[in-house]
């Protein structure tokens, strides 16, 4: 069973390999085992993200669990994961166009069963270990940035760090509206928006949610998309760098899927499928 459809995985793998610097073999004798192909390891890490299983369960004759961990850490040091996410967002912006006039931010709490730097007592899971991510999306739900934190961190405390990611998408439109739920109905959140020249449409506390739906529903849908990845729904990584790497890879996959679906209605190409459904 493939971890992702070939129409998503193939271009993603090709772009990822382009971002990697050439490997230089510095072994003095040249008699060590040959290096496992980067494409094989990348596919294994995508399987770890989608299925959420341990590296030992994915290991086989083509790639060991130790190789997956070493290559994952090597690519984290090179900063390739975040660059891949930005490349996918840039491709979506060029072909479809980002809706930066309306942004949405919301938090999402998932399980962190192994503890670690991004784990804390979850207020929605009887104090068990949990992880929170603060998600920023454009008006169409394309993930622009994600900030990871322990589950006992308030949503409003993560808003400044989440909005700081907008520097990667400058220049912004003249009037930018950030849609927020009642968890951000506090004075520090309004001050953070004013400092960045952003207009906030914040739901007032105490008013029923269906009456104030607004345009923030797209970030709820994006959180649901990201929770389809087993590694994010039940995080077993202990280091923040590893968590952020998988968040960036998941955002890249979600962006490519949204790009293919939107392009099906706007363009035609030789290998275009008969329906917009991604198989």
Architecture overview:
- The chain has helices at 6-19, 38-51, 55-58, 65-78, 80-95, 155-163, 187-195, 217-226, 230-233, 240-266; strands at residues 102-112, 120-121, 129-137, 143-150, 177-180, 199-202, 234-235.
- With 279 residues, the protein is of the alpha/beta class.
- The mean pLDDT is 91.
- It has a domain at 99-237: Nucleotidyltransferase, domain 5, CATH 3.30.420.
- Strands 1, 2, 3, 4, 5, 6 and 7 form a 7-stranded mixed sheet that branches.
- The longest helix is centred in the C-terminal third of the chain and has 27 residues, at 240-266.
- The protein has 10 helices and 7 strands.
- Helix 5 packs parallel to helix 10 (240-266) and helix 6 packs parallel to helix 7 (187-195).
Question: Which helices and strands occur, and which strands form pairs?
Answer:
Layout: H1 6-19, H2 38-51, H3 55-58, H4 65-78, H5 80-95, E1 102-112, E2 120-121, E3 129-137, E4 143-150, H6 155-163, E5 177-180, H7 187-195, E6 199-202, H8 217-226, H9 230-233, E7 234-235, H10 240-266
Parallel strand pairs: 1-5, 1-7, 5-6
Antiparallel strand pairs: 1-3, 2-3, 3-4
Features:
single chain, globular, alpha/beta, 10 helices, 7 strands, Nucleotidyltransferase, domain 5, 279 residues, seven-stranded mixed sheet
């Amino acid at each position: 069973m493939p971890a992702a459809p070939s129409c998503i995985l193939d271009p993603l793998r090709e772009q990822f390999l382009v971002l990697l610097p050439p490997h230089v073999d510095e072994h003095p004798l040249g008699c060590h085992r040959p290096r496992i192909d980067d494409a094989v390891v990348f596919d294994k890490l995508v399987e770890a993200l989608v299925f959420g299983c341990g590296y030992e369960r994915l290991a086989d004759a083509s790639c060991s669990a130790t190789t997956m961990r070493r290559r994952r850490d090597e690519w984290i040091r090179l900063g390739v994961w975040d660059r891949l996410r930005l490349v996918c967002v840039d491709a979506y912006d060029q072909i479809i166009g980002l809706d930066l006039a309306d942004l949405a931010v919301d938090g999402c709490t998932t399980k962190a069963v192994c503890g670690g730097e991004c784990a804390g007592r979850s207020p929605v899971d009887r104090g068990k270990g949990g992880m929170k991510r603060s998600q920023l999306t454009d008006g169409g739900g394309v993930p622009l940035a994600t900030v990871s934190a322990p589950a006992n961190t308030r949503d409003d405390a993560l808003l400044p760090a989440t909005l700081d990611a907008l520097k990667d998408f400058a220049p912004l439109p003249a009037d930018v509206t950030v849609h927020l739920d009642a968890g951000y109905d506090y004075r520090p959140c309004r001050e953070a928006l004013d400092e960045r020249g952003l207009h906030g449409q914040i739901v007032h506390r105490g008013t029923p949610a269906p009456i104030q739906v607004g345009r923030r529903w797209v970030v709820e849908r994006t959180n649901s998309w990201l929770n389809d990845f087993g590694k994010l729904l039940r995080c077993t990584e202990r280091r923040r760098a590893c968590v952020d790497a998988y968040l960036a890879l998941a955002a890249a996959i979600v962006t490519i899927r949204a790009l293919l679906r939107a392009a099906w209605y706007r363009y035609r190409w030789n290998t275009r499928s008969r329906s917009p459904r991604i198989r």
